[in-house]
Amino acid sequence: MEVTEKNVREIIGGYARDQRYALAIMQDMQRTFQYVPREGLELLAEHLGCPVSALYSMATFYRALSLVPKGVHIIRCCDGTACHIRGASTLIEGIERELGIGPGETTPDGQFSLETVNCLGSCALAPVMVLDDVYYGKVTLERLKEILSEVREGGGGK
Amino acid sequence: MRKTVLICCGTGCRANGSLAVVDAVRDAIRETGAPADAVAQVKTTGCNGFCENGPIVKVMPDDITYYKVKPKDAKEIIEKTVVAGEPVLRLLYKNEAGERVRSQEENPFYAQQKKIALSAIGKIDPENIDDYLEIGGYEALKKALAMTPDEIITEVEKSGLRGRGGAGFPTGRKWRTAAGYDNYPKYVVCNGDEGDPGAFMDRSVLEGDPHAVIEGLAIAALAIGAEEGFFYIRDEYDLAVKHIRKAIEDARERGILGDSVMGSGHKLNLSVVRGGGAFICGESTALMASIEGKVGEPRAKYIRSVQRGLWNQPTVLNNVETLANIPYIISNGGEAFAGIGTKGSSGTKVFALVGKVKRTGLVEVPMGTTLRHLIYDIGGGIIGDRPFKAVQTGGPSGGCIPESMLDLEVDFDTLSSYGAMMGSGGMIVMDDRSCMVEVARYYTQFLCEESCGKCTPCREGLRRMLEILTDICEGRGREGDLELLERIGHALQDSSLCSLGKSAPNPVLTTIKYFRSEYEAHIREKRCPAGVCRKLTSYGIDKTKCVGCDLCAKGCPAGAISGGKKEPHEIDPNICITCGSCREACRFDAVVTLGKGASMK
Question: What is the SS3 string spanning B336-378?
Answer without folding.
Answer: HHHCCECCCCECEEEEEEEECECCCEEEEEECCCEHHHHHHHH
